[in-house]
Amino acid sequence: MVKKARIGILGASGYTGAELVRLGLRHPHFELAVLTADRKAGQAMADVFPQFAPFDLPKLVAIEGLDWRSLALDLVFCALPHGTTQLVLKELLDTAPATRVVDLSADFRLDDPAAYETWYGHPHQALSLQSEAVYGLVEIYRKEIKGARLVANPGCYTTTCELPLIPLLKRKAIEPDEIIIDAKSGMTGAGRSAKEAMLFSEVSEGFNAYGIARHRHMAELDQEFSKAAGQDVIATFTPHLVPMNRGILATIYVRLRKDRTARDLRSILAEAYDREPFVHVLPYGDMPQTRHVRGSNMAMIGVAEDRREGAAIIVSVLDNLVKGASGQAIQNANLMLGFPETAGLEQIALFP
């Protein structure tokens, strides 16, 4: 019998934490050893999420007072709010330096401390960890992730946009200064905390743009697009909130480089992701929908020609809680722990 990895989930009472539990319960190599919560500490996981009633899970506990060394965790998923995460992980890794961490917050995604301070409003409080963190977009940084101790799981919007655009920027197939991203996310992307703006009567029967020209994911997009292009790239990005539970759909408008066609873009993406288990490029002209990936770790990409000469339209979709968060986190963890990359992630989209 293969020894299972002891796993901790910090912030298990949130949506991404619960998704980590859902996927982790069926992971062949995981033992869910520690589940933490703040306001829900002392409760059973089934009291917070009744779908877990049939399963024997650890009781939710507070982070304060945990002895990281004696817990002997192989890997920790951190699903805490940004800002909070830095000091928690600093203490954890100072105490138990052999523990691997996949952080689902935004705290370690940006390479530049000054950029973090600009976008998040305070200095980074764990600079030594920030410098060692590896950006966890598996399809781009697989080799670096395998040897990492700390992986910064990408944001859900950014994963949706980076998967189609990074290969095209690397191949210089599109103009880097003419990228427009119109993205729409389901409600779970806003978290589980009670907020007046998230009440059913506030969001049903309509949708809205938000974070206009200042959404924090823009810093992540700037960083990764610029690396791919080898020059500064600033894309136009507008997020929208849609009254559905799960899913992100990004409609991306690009200008083609000279002598490139929309079919060329599709060919580049198909070649880039031909052997990837969780990215599927559709036949030219076909477009994905969020329901095609619901509950799965799959991202789907479609490419079509724009009616404007020399332009193309790309549509990219994923489930914001799976490939956009917890599924991608498990994909990272599998690499870090030496397990098959697809372990625990084979579920097909749920439809209808």
Automatic annotation (TrEMBL):
SUPFAM superfamilies documented for this protein: Glyceraldehyde-3-phosphate dehydrogenase-like, C-terminal domain, NAD(P)-binding Rossmann-fold domains
EC number from the UniProt entry: 1.2.1.38
Family: Belongs to the NAGSA dehydrogenase family. Type 1 subfamily.
PANTHER family per the UniProt record, alphabetical: N-ACETYL-GAMMA-GLUTAMYL-PHOSPHATE REDUCTASE, CHLOROPLASTIC-RELATED (PTHR32338:SF10), N-ACETYL-GAMMA-GLUTAMYL-PHOSPHATE REDUCTASE, CHLOROPLASTIC-RELATED-RELATED (PTHR32338)
InterPro entries: AGPR, AGPR_AS, AGPR_dimerisation_dom, AGPR_type-1, NAD(P)-bd_dom_sf, Semialdehyde_DH_NAD-bd
Main location, first listed in the record: cytoplasm
Protein's organism: Blastochloris tepida
GO cellular component: cytoplasm
Summary of the function given for this chain in its UniProt record: Catalyzes the NADPH-dependent reduction of N-acetyl-5-glutamyl phosphate to yield N-acetyl-L-glutamate 5-semialdehyde.
Record protein name field: N-acetyl-gamma-glutamyl-phosphate reductase
Domain Semialdehyde dehydrogenase NAD-binding: 6-148
Pathway recorded for this protein: Amino-acid biosynthesis; L-arginine biosynthesis; N(2)-acetyl-L-ornithine from L-glutamate: step 3/4
Biological process annotations from GO: L-arginine biosynthetic process
Active site: C156
